[in-house]
Amino acid sequence: MASSYSAKEEDGQRAGAPGPAGNANSGKKPDNTAFKQQRLPAWQPILTAGTVLPAFFIIGLIFIPIGIGLFVTSNNIKEFEIDYTGTDSWSPCYNCAQNYSWNSSTPCRCTLPFTLEQPFESNVFMYYGLSNFYQNHRRYVKSRDDSQLNGDLSSLKYPSKECEPYRLNENKPIAPCGAIANSMFNDTLELYYIDPNGTQTLIPLMKKGIAWWTDKHVKFRNPGGSNANLTAVFQVSTKPVNWRNPVYELDSDPENNGFINEDFIVWMRTAALPTFRKLYRIIQKKNNMTPTLPRGNYTLEVVYNYPVNSFEGRKRMILSTISWMGGKNPFLGIAYITVGSVCFFLGVVLLFIHHKYGNRNNSSDIPN
Amino acid sequence: MLRRRINLLFGGDEKRVDSRTIYVGHRPCPATEAFIPPKFCDNRIVSSKYTIWNFLPKNLFEQFRRIANFYFLIIFLVQVIVDTPTSPVTSGLPLFFVITVTAIKQGYEDWLRHKADYEVNKYPVIVLEDGRSIRKESEKIKVGDIVEVVEDETFPCDLILLQSTRDDDTCFVTTASLDGESNHKTHYTVPDTEKDLQSLNATIECEQPQPDLYKFVGRMHIYKTDQEPAVRSLGPENLLLKGATLKNTKKIYGVAVYTGMETKMALNYQGKSQKRSAVEKSINAFLLVYLCILISKAVVCTTLKYVWQSQDGQDEPWYNEKTQKEKDTYVYLKMFTDFLSFMVLFNFIIPVSMYVTVEMQKFLGSFFITWDKDFFDPEIQEGALVNTSDLNEELGQVEYVFTDKTGTLTQNNMEYIECCIDGFQYRNSDSMSELDGFCVTDGPVSKLQQKAGRDKEELFLRALCLCHTVQVKEAGPDEIDSDQVDGLVSELSQPDEQRGFIASSPDEVALVKGAMKHGFTFLGLENKSMKIRNRENNVELYDLLHVLNFDPVRRRMSVIVRSKSGETLLFCKGADSSIFPRVRQEEVDRIRMHVERNATEGYRTLCVAYKQLSPEEFAVADAGLRDARLALQDREEKLMAVYNQVETSMSLIGATAVEDRLQEEAAETMEALQGAGMKVWVLTGDKMETAKSTCYACRLFQRGTELLELTVRTLEDGGRKREERLHELLLDYHKKAVQDAPPVKAGVTRSWSTANQEYGFIVDGATLSLVMNPSPDTNSSRYKSLFLQICQNCTAVLCCRMAPLQKAQIVKMVKNSKGSPITLSIGDGANDVSMILEAHVGIGIKGKEGRQAVRNSDYAIPKLKHLKKLLLAHGHLYYVRIAHLVQYFFYKNLCFILPQFLYQFFCGYSQQPLYDAAYLTMYNICFTSMPILAFSLLEQHIAIEYLLDNATLYREIAKNAMLKWGPFLYWTVLGIFQGLLFFFGVKYLFSNPALQDNGQVFGNWSYGTIVFTVLVFTVTLKLALDTRHWTWINHFVIWGSLAFYVFFSFFWGGIIWPFLKQQRLYFVFANMLSSVSAWLVIILLILLSLLPDILLMVFRKPRGPHARQLSEGSLLQTARSLPSPRCPTSI
């Protein structure tokens, strides 16, 4: 009976108690406040042709120069890209790519000669690029344990479930666990400059500063603190299946070893798209006189460890200078020029229309 | 006797018995050998829904009965069970929030109800038991208890009045809390009950509880030791309702007949059927579209996923192996779970928050109606009342307005104007017209004027004085105070001339006052005898034998009185149509002319007739009436039969004319409504001429309007069969109004030019029933559609002589006609309730005819003139607001989810979300919800004054214009355009992910964050562009939301959150802001996304103050060219 009695409460909009409560709010004059009377002072912008037209011109006038600036900047960025996948038989890395086996103890090396037509001024950034590599696959993206990477000892022993099937190996926890870590890019790239007289000089590559500062210093931490003996700490765990060396042997520099190895950190930041590049090394500018990479002949020495043929991937090495807007990307400049021009053009068209329309308006106003 | 015993035996099963027997004071009556106390429910009021124990399950069950909540629950469960891309938190949290808030609200309301129940149930009352007065808690009252109630107390249950301390065995009550009528109502004790209640031995037989407050049928058997049991009939006048308050009476005793949940008050507290607005239907339609989009997206993705995976090396490359569990899963099951995962990933396209926001908007928005001081009426000290907030936007969509006449168009403030006795006209004496009236003191003064004979005059005036149910306001010195408190108009300053009268109908008061002006004063009713003072200042006494009550079907009332000289007289007054057939025809002709003239002048006319009853006649009538009153079943019908039998072959003595003033600004309001494209139909029970003149006065009909009449009179012209004539007329009118009329467009928009002939249509109740219920033999099934077509092509339709149900019938007919137009009914009386409930929007006027209309309405306003602002300003704004809200919500979620959908093409259809879970969850809750809520509460795209001045603006939103498929398509295309722009814009940027000036690269979460930032800014700025009315609140929430987003992103990415499994967004936002390219692309994309809107805005017609100045000139012109209101009568 009770439920039929108050069937109206379904939506709970209104208590609607019968009796005196029903009349409680009546008999009271509503407050004469601006809010209650919907008379709050308000700014009522009117977007008419008159106000919008200048905006179009202003946008056009601002965007076109920015666009040109971006375009020029982007064009001034030197970029060199070389594919060393080795799918074609003439490629120096063909043999390495074809004869790849996980178990081979001797690394396969290949050498690719290339020529820089223009000298690269200032710092040069060396990237490796992968194509058709789905680092953004869901199963892949989630296959990591950030608390393990943050140095949590219990996560080191008991990695997260998300790391499956790269969580345990022979009943020992994998450190770092997960698919991302397991598939870390492990080609070694070296760059040699060939003097006009034929001598090869190894170009020094800097491996610091390739990862985000916050990642290196906060998000990634070695277990047991910064001064711990990594070998001992990681003893409870085992190396990822596909790795040749355990995580504590990634680098000799203790500041760049274990989880805080920058190559590792860079790899762990999953890419947005299946074709991506990741920062590998930085070639620092030596002095003001000579370009960082003068024009001429170079060779790229690759220790070919990373198989991509099985999923039809490609591997590239990219050399690029960087401007204030980042790497080379003509898109922004073109987009800005286009949008600016469109706005400007629209402004002109609108001005024309408005002129005619306005005239008509005026003529109809006259009889009044 | 046997049957009664059987009834008693089955007394426990009340539903099976149609009457109940109550033993007064639980004393066994001698008639039944065995006293079996019947079981009735106790007097506990339970208005609460929940107890502490069942609150959680019951409340949850009720909440998940709502389809939307259920859908989100399913999504949540899918997320919990299946391995889905987003954590269950993303949809669980909003759902939990919504459910919790609703539960808390409902719990609080229920707690209030518990508290109120407790207060009522524990209220101490005095019950007579075995001769002693015992204090009891109210909830312990049982049916049959004799309860004592003192002055100003409310009755604890429904009581039959047994004894009152007043001499005349009456008591006064107010039913203000039941139906809002604050006047005193008289209730009577059961006749012949003994003074000593202890020795009273009686049973009451009455019907089972039913909710009608004004109906009660019962019978009381009084057993006396040595006599036959006496039987008394019980009616509503003996029943004191729970909730009513005792007034002006020291103390009463009554026996409880209905208790607790069976009282009429409890039975009446039931919900009306829920009305759903057109906007809600649109929302559901759009939801369906979005559901289709959602499902097709999921299907496309699932299909493509398996196509893509079938390629070599894509399904499981060496770097990304499946888990053992995934490998083991059966492929079709896997496909199904993939489909579900995609559904979950895209389910944000149908947001929980939209329901919350729409509900909040409606709930909060309705306060603006209650708060509006323009709706405040100083006379009754009340403002507007909102009974449901579900229909706010419907107020902006009204196409048909059905209005009552009396009390709605007119003030229901009656003033006696003139009378006509025996064919001679008597103007009110103080009107100073050349027609001199009665001389108040000196008897007949007809010098030159022809007058009816003095006998006739006096008979007529006596009739006026006797034939009514008016009470004289008691002006005893001890009661003055309470009278003034009650706020009734008491004119005690001139105690003799200006007496206070109380009556259920203002006509009666006007007539009694009219008679007073002519020298006959009604002094009151005492001990069943009416006292009047005649012109010679002598008091005449008449015994009131019977009152044949007024009812809208008979449209007349009578009294039977016996004068001191022993004559038994029947006086009858009523509508001409109900009197004329019952009097001698030769008398009719003399008076008819006056009646019709008065009617065309807009006066309400009543005819007065009388009849002298011979003792035999009276004996028959008396017996008939008593029998009928005692009948337990079909009492109404039986009474009616007797009434009709008695009220025959009377002689007509005169007619009265009473003026009913138009409501303030009635004409302006009607004109505005018509200007707004609404069709106004007047549905009235009044007669045609009166109603017609009111229509002219309200400018519903203009001089140029051609009236198409379909009434009994036109049907009887030509002397043929009604059906034939009806058919002919309908075809004729149809040809005129529909076929010859210019195309529909001109019919809808009423132009002020005279080129278009305007039609007004008049139909009366009798003809209407011919149309609606045609006899089966005629080929008249087409009548209804013909009739409807004619009506729809007329600017105004007048339906007169309507019974309440016919009003509802008409509303229903229009409501269900082609295009299902939105209807609005407005009325003030009980007779309008049916049409108020029937129409899409029911509006009650807090008028003089009680509160029933108000109680059953969706909105109640004090005056008719408030309707204009309610519709033109509030309705218009609410509609625009909610339409924008709905479209915006769909739009913002479309461009929210579209990039996520597109991302699937670039992540191997792996259901990888583009945005972080926090963004997915917060987008609709925090980042974009407040600006649209503020917009939907505060937006005034056109100033209120301007809306009121230009009624035509209402047409722009007619027919759900803003929620048609056209605008929906625009918003959808805009959403798709922006979604594509966001995704591909950022994708081209990410063709080289080295976006920082230190050469470092961005990952997938940076990608998502850039898209999301653009998204949040774009949708918020899009709303900012649409906002025409920037109050500080708008500024605060729009800029505040954006600031909050930035702040939140910093905060969210600034800490390693221990409870998160993955620190995906750690410093992503900050790093994004350190990249110039990201800034540039964000600015570019926002601007580009808004460009179409800015462009449209330029091309759109300018509005606002600018437009106001522009059109003011033309407005003046239209005002000048308006045909000035010309109606045949001026009121």
UniProtKB/TrEMBL annotation, chain A:
Q: Which family does it belong to?
A: Belongs to the CDC50/LEM3 family.
Q: Which UniProt keywords apply?
A: Cell membrane, Cytoplasmic vesicle, Disulfide bond, Glycoprotein, Golgi apparatus, Lipid transport, Membrane, Transmembrane, Transmembrane helix, Transport
Transmembrane portions of the chain? 46-72, 331-353
Q: According to its record, how does it sit in the membrane? A: Multi-pass membrane protein
Gene Ontology biological-process annotations: phospholipid translocation
Q: Check the record and name the InterPro entries matching this protein.
A: CDC50/LEM3_fam (IPR005045)
Q: Which organism is it from?
A: Astyanax mexicanus (Blind cave fish)
Cellular-component GO terms for this entry: apical plasma membrane; endoplasmic reticulum; Golgi apparatus; transport vesicle membrane
- Which Pfam families does its entry note? CDC50
Q: For this UniProt entry, what is the primary localization, expressed as one broad class? A: membrane
Q: Which domain of life is it from?
A: Eukaryota
Q: Where is the composition biased (Low complexity)?
A: 15-27
PANTHER family in the record, alphabetically?
CELL CYCLE CONTROL PROTEIN 50, CELL CYCLE CONTROL PROTEIN 50A
Instruction: Tell me where in or outside the cell this protein is found.
Output: Apical cell membrane; Cytoplasmic vesicle, Secretory vesicle membrane; Golgi apparatus; Membrane
The answer on whether this UniProt entry bears the keyword Thylakoid reads: no
Q: Per its record, how is this protein called by name?
A: Cell cycle control protein
Entry keyword Transport: yes
Q: Where is this region: Disordered?
A: 1-31
From TrEMBL, chain B:
- Alphabetized GO MF terms: ATP binding; ATP hydrolysis activity; magnesium ion binding; phosphatidylserine floppase activity
Q: Name one GO biological process term.
A: phospholipid translocation
Chief localization: membrane
Extract the PROSITE patterns matched here.
ATPASE_E1_E2
Q: Which residues cross the membrane?
A: 64-82, 285-308, 339-358, 918-938, 968-990, 1005-1024, 1036-1057, 1077-1099
* Family note: Belongs to the cation transport ATPase (P-type) (TC 3.A.3) family. Type IV subfamily.
User: What is this protein's name?
Assistant: Phospholipid-transporting ATPase
Species of the source: Astyanax mexicanus (Blind cave fish)
